[in-house]
Amino acid sequence: MTVVTSPNQQFTVSHLNEDDFKTGGLRSYSSYRDLGVAMATNGAATAHVIRMIAPFSESFSQRHHHDVQFQLIYVLKGWFKSEFEGHGVQTMKEGSCWIQPPNIRHTVVGWSDDCELLEVILPAEHETVVDE
């Protein structure tokens, strides 16, 4: 029998506060609300709400991938469209959820003006690689 150990975790609660949405993250067209998961899990995971703060432009479309163990995205509001390696273009609407396997190459191809996503990633610190 394999025993799985988990990192020390702390109890945390994150209530909605509009001031918690910050820019300057991975994408210039988004603001992020950190939900405190990285701190509570000692970096084992992270979770944040992402708001699209600029209208979609093709200049934002860059093929890339994330060096992660796990990535889940859930559409809270609006819609979000990406093209995924081997799976084509997918339009995710409010209530849609998807998992991006480690290192799957993808390109963002659109979003609604009111788009808001919940993203959960393991581990908290990871690399995003822009494909050339």
TrEMBL record:
Gene3D superfamilies: Jelly Rolls (2.60.120.10)
Domain Cupin type-2, chain residue ranges per copy: 61-119
InterPro entries: Cupin_2, RmlC-like_jellyroll, RmlC_Cupin_sf
Pfam family, one: Cupin_2
Domain of life the protein comes from: Bacteria
Protein's name according to its UniProt entry: Cupin domain-containing protein
